Amino acid sequence: MLSNVFTEMFGVEHPVVCGGMTGVGTSPLIAGVANAGALGFLSALTQPTPEALDAEIKACRELTDKPFGVNLTILPTIRPVPYEEYRQVIIENRIPVVETAGGSPEAHMPAFKAAGVKVVHKAVAVRHALKAQALGVDAVSIDGFECAGHPGEEDITSLILIPAAVRVLDIPVIASGGFADGAGLAAALSLGAVAVNMGTRFVATHEAPVHRNVKNQIVANTERDTRMIFRKFRNSARVARNSISEEILEISARPETTFQDIAHLASGARGREAVLKNGDMEDGLWWAGQTQGLIHSVGSCAEVVGEIVAEAEHIITTRLAALIHPEPAPAR
What's the gap between Cα 200 and its chain centre? Predict the structure, then answer.
């Protein structure tokens, strides 16, 4: 068993995380992750109201008695989000750990700290991780360029970003972006991270609440089947390659394009309805990382976590250990 500061800090068996995913991070998946011995995060804003989040937390606890957390993504929105009310639901339900993402968690830190809630903040750059540390977060999850979703604008891969963050931070670093197998877990640990955060890998599980077509497409896709969109608008996002992402890139390449020209294609509601719910893989955007090229089957959360941890243990104790040979004794 792989145990370290991460497993001790969060009371889980394995140094594996399923971070918050909008539209996907609901109780069936997160309970499956928890029961597999990993740390999963319900997505607070997937729930339309704080009351709905309260119900989802209770539903998750009906499915598992293991620890799990809640993701609170802080973003500018057209309609104001009652973040303080979502936060209060998290606190009242005695959630042990929150994953914050998007904007700064500063406004929420005093309340979380007073309630004894640990905070993991997602960052895409070392300087952002340092700022989060200064605010008092307990750990950072740092996203490399390979990740699904928003990797920032600096295009730093995990192989560089993780050790760069570990070198300057005093708090644990969770490796995110580019991880889907045991080799990746072993690599992340060797780079100084305490765990890996996986999104795309957990979407391709039986428990993920998405259409079977999505899971099959992840398995069929390769590492080349993603596209970076919104770069022109400095809001770069990695999504799966399909007709919608290709059309967005084509329109965005025109000099006069504004975001309004692609807004109808980029709608998150459209993607969740067409792709995740109905399984039409060509009628909306859906998030996917380059790790698609490392995912070759759909399995249960228990199977996925078990295989990844077993492979990492084998690599560390056998493959890498076999490379070390004792110095020959000096001749007498």
Answer: 8
Is 155 inside any structural domain?
A: yes
Tokens coding 213: 């077509």
pLDDT single digits (tens) 190-242: 999 999 999 999 999 999 999 999 999 999 999 999 999 999 999 999 999 99
Distance CA 260, CA 149 (A): 20
Is the separation of the CB atoms in 239 and 229 below 8 Å? Answer: yes
Distance CA 214, CA 211 (A): 6
Residue 222 falls inside a structural domain = no
Query: Into how many domains does the chain fold?
Result: 1
* Residue 129 belongs to a domain: yes
**Assigned token pair, 311:** 């492979």
Q: Which residues partner with 227 through β-bridges?
A: 239
Q: What is the pLDDT of residues 43-97, one digit of tens each?
A: 999 999 999 999 999 999 999 999 999 999 998 777 889 999 999 999 999 999 9
279 part of a folded domain: no
Residue 301 burial class via C-beta count within 10 angstroms: exposed 0-12, middle 13-18, buried 19 and up = buried
Number of neighbours of residue 123 by Cβ within 10 angstroms: 25
State the CATH number of the domain containing residue 25: 3.20.20.70
The closest of 39, 33, 31 to 12, measured between CA atoms, is 39
State the pTM of this model.
Answer: 0.94
